[in-house]
Amino acid sequence: GLGSVAVQAPVEGAGVVDGAPELPIVSVGAAVGLSTLADDGHDTTVRNIDGVRAADGAPELRLPLTSVGAAVGLSTFADDGLDTIARAIDGARAAEQARLLARFGNDAAKAESGTAVGASAMWTLIFNPAENGGLIMPVSRTWNFAPSPANDDWTYAIFDWDNLFATLLAALDGGADAEAYAYSNLFQVMKSKTAAGFVPNYAAGGMRTQDRTEPPVGAKVVLEVFKKFNQSWVVDVVWDDMLDWSDWFLRRRLLHPDGLVALGSFNEQSQHGSEAGGGTNNMQAARLESGLDNSPMYDGEFFDANRTHLMQLYDVGMSSMFVQEAYALAELASLTGRSDQVADLRARGDAMKAKIASNLWDESLQVFSNRFPNGSFYPRISPTSFYAMQAHAPTDAQAAAMVTAWLTNSSRFCVAPGGDFAGNADTCYWGLPSISADDPAFPPLGYWRGYVWGPMAQLTHWALQEYDHVPEVRAARKAMCRQLDALMLSQWRAHRHICENYNPHKTADTSHGDCSGTQFYHWGALTGLIGLVEDGLW
């Protein structure tokens, strides 16, 4: 209730013209307590500050500090000393730590994971009146696609699946505020839907990719959030958007003759390649639709720019996620009084499931794989092969064989059966790299060519959950959760970072022990979320 903020850390400042440290504030007229002794709440000067203006007109306070490492306290009460401010902060911190411990079953290890997951979403939470709900969780503070922002405070980007996963991360907390943040973020993403009917690859400030979407996970996320909070009005808000997105896939992303989903790019309003990321109606734009921008699965040139505007490749991951979405829509329809739509939505999923089962199982490799229309498989295997289990496409025997031959194989996806890293090489230590470790693209690494990614962890976990009755699958799922939670915590403990992606090496030596991507990117915490879900703490 003090309305105070204390900075109990070295203050290096932004540096004014003469090089002295400076401290920005958000309002003119604030009271400031300054001490050069970090633990001293008595040797404090309390003064009223009239403030100065920065070049862009924002008020800021410039305090020349006598030493780096000084403690600075800001309070809206003029008589608050640094000790009062520090006590308020310490008390709030202790209360929050106690709340988190209770929230995660009085298990300190789980509370640590839960804290990291919550921080991943809340660090990126911003208010932006240019969007639909006000509050949104951009992937990080470094990405921007907003056209001509007034200043750096208004830079942001909404990515389809990245931001949908942030709704899960925020919802984990379970409190009323976190629930509201999760809904607002969800609405922001789904309401970025284009006139053509799909949620775009990215959007910001009224701009959207008009040629391509990204992996469809919206209905599945809404289903998980609905099961947690039981708020049917949330489903009502986005129902038409979710259904439009599924319908659009049937209209624009089926590759014949077999009718499975393929990646594509085509702006129905214009064929001009004017959008960021390599234009439209080409192979690279279609790669971007996968969300796996440079995956070895899409090495080569097999895009039809003249007739279908699709990659000439049946995509096991996208086809399976389409089925998962159809089944999630059917379940949501059943739970929210839309019984007249259940049968059609189930049939939609069943039809694609049958096509996956009939066309994408590679018997020689014992795995579901992408396939060309001429019948030949494209055996660059990533975790998307496991997504076939989201669609219930494998038989139990196929699911067990795929997990044994690939997921728990230390030369491929490196999930030790006990979740203890036993038998894993240092080069594929943490498990679930974004391409199989025996692929020639893996040793040099790079982005989606071997790094470990949170969204793949989440999607693989959803897939494995569907075969809980198969002992090999169940054991592999639990082992994967243990290894990937340890991966997230290794960076959280060392650096307080949540990584865009993670180096699969035990020492992360290609990035000096730190993140291999953006150092605070919320979906990296999905590697920890799945373990909390596994332990019944969702």
Automatic annotation (TrEMBL):
It comes from the Eukaryota. Residues 177-522 form the Mannosylglycerate hydrolase MGH1-like glycoside hydrolase domain. InterPro entries: 6-hairpin_glycosidase_sf, 6hp_glycosidase-like_sf, MGH1-like_GH. GO terms for biological process: carbohydrate metabolic process. This is Mannosylglycerate hydrolase MGH1-like glycoside hydrolase domain-containing protein. It comes from Alexandrium monilatum.
